[in-house]
């Protein structure tokens, strides 16, 4: 069951041009969190913006009761959020939604993130690694100025590869180019993906062609976050008239289940 809490902010820093990392303490929520789920955050203390903003669980430490978010400034709400200071409180609802499947130990997992879509994959990497899975993380971004801090992945001890569209860091090209050129599909048991939909559509095609199962995490504009307003409906691939609610049935879906916008 999701709960409401006032999270004490214990860390907030700018990572790159538009990316921030925010850490707060909310033990009752942290304790329930699973990778792929998200929280709904009230940004600021005013009536406007009224609606909460959904943000993924970037990292969770159940021992400390802390949750870390990675967010990109795109509009009014996230801009207001940048002004939050350490020792202030944030109004949090969560955890919400359905998270990722956790593989059995020794499985080979490939995690593919595009831009800020890396956010839910870091906590996932931690939990998979704790479950003795082999974890490889591919992260693609446009340029090195938008890279995030990878100390977390280093600390978790997973293999990670960076790709930049302009070649300013790591592999030059889209992360999907790296996938097709450098990854041996026979060595992957399961793919997890989050990022722009055209990228996820390419990954889904790769998974289908190579007969690899997996999951994608979708972003959709949300209002209630609990399945009441129908604001986040998405069509299923196989059944013409069947829609799912991203906030409640997702945000994680099977890689072959939902219609992805190319
Ligand atoms: C389940 C889920 C998890 C998410 N996790 C993260 C995360 O970990 N880090 C992160 O930075 N962002 C994440 N997002 C996206 C984040 O919620 C939006 O960027 C944020 O709500 C924008 O708020 P705003 O007030 O700054 O922008 P707004 O003023 O509301 O919008 C600014 C611009 O962003 C676009 N936009 C707003 N919301 C979305 C959305 N959900 N999908 C696509 N475009 C959108 C608008 O069309 C507009 O062009 C997630 C979204 C969902 C649904
Ligand atoms: S956001 Fe209201 S039903 Fe999904």
Any overview of this molecule?
The relative contact order is 0.14. The longest helix has 13 residues, at 197-209. This protein has helices at residues 27-30, 76-81, 119-130, 151-156, 175-182, 197-209, 246-249, and strands at residues 3-14, 19-25, 38-42, 53-56, 59-61, 66-72, 89-96, 108-114, 134-141, 159-164, 171-172, 190-194, 213-217, 233-235, 243-245, 252-254. By secondary structure, the protein is an alpha/beta fold. Helix 6 links the parallel strand 12 and strand 13 (213-217). The chain has two domains: 3-96, Beta Barrel (Elongation Factor Tu (Ef-tu), domain 3), CATH 2.40.30; 108-254, Nucleotide-binding domain of ferredoxin-NADP reductase (FNR) module (Rossmann fold, 3-Layer(aba) Sandwich). The strands form three sheets. It has a seven-stranded antiparallel beta sheet. Residues 38, 49, 53-56, 70-72, 74-78, 116, 119, 219-222, 251 line the site of flavin-adenine dinucleotide.
Low-confidence parts:
none
**Element order: H for helix, E for strand:** EEHEEEEHEEHEHEEHEHEEEHE
Q: Give the CATH superfamily of the largest domain.
A: Nucleotide-binding domain of ferredoxin-NADP reductase (FNR) module
Largest sheet: 7 strands, antiparallel
Basic shape: globular
What do the pLDDT scores average to?
Answer: 93
Number of strands: 16
- By CATH reckoning, the class of the largest domain would read Alpha Beta
Q: What is the C-alpha radius of gyration, as a whole number of Å? A: 18 Å
Spatial strand order of the main sheet: 4-3-7-1-2-6-5
How much helical structure, as a percent, in the residues? 10-25%
């Amino acid at each position: 069951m999701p709960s409401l809490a006032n999270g004490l902010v214990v860390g907030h820093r700018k990572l790159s041009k538009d990316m921030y990392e925010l850490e707060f303490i909310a033990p009752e929520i942290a304790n329930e969190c699973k990778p792929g789920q998200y929280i709904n955050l009230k940004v600021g203390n005013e009536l406007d913006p009224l609606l909460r903003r959904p943000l993924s669980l970037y990292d969770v430490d159940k021992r400390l009761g802390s949750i870390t978010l990675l967010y990109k400034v795109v509009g009014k709400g996230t801009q207001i959020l940048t002004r939050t200071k350490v020792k202030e409180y944030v109004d949090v609802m969560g955890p919400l939604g359905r998270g990722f499947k956790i593989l059995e130990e020794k499985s080979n997992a490939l995690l593919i993130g595009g831009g800020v879509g890396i956010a839910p994959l870091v906590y996932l990497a931690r939990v998979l690694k704790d479950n003795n899975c082999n974890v490889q993380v591919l992260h693609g971004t446009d340029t090195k100025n938008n890279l995030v801090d990878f100390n977390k992945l280093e600390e978790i001890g997973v293999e990670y590869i960076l790709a930049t569209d302009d070649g300013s860091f790591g592999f030059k090209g889209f992360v999907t180019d790296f996938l097709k050129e450098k990854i041996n599909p026979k060595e992957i048991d399961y793919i997890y993906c989050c990022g722009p939909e055209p990228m996820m559509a390419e990954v889904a095609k790769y998974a289908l062609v190579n007969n690899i199962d997996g999951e994608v995490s979708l972003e959709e504009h949300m209002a209630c976050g609990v399945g009441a307003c129908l604001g986040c409906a998405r069509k299923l691939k196989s059944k013409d008239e069947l829609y799912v609610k991203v906030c409640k049935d997702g945000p994680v879906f099977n890689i072959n289940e939902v219609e992805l916008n190319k």
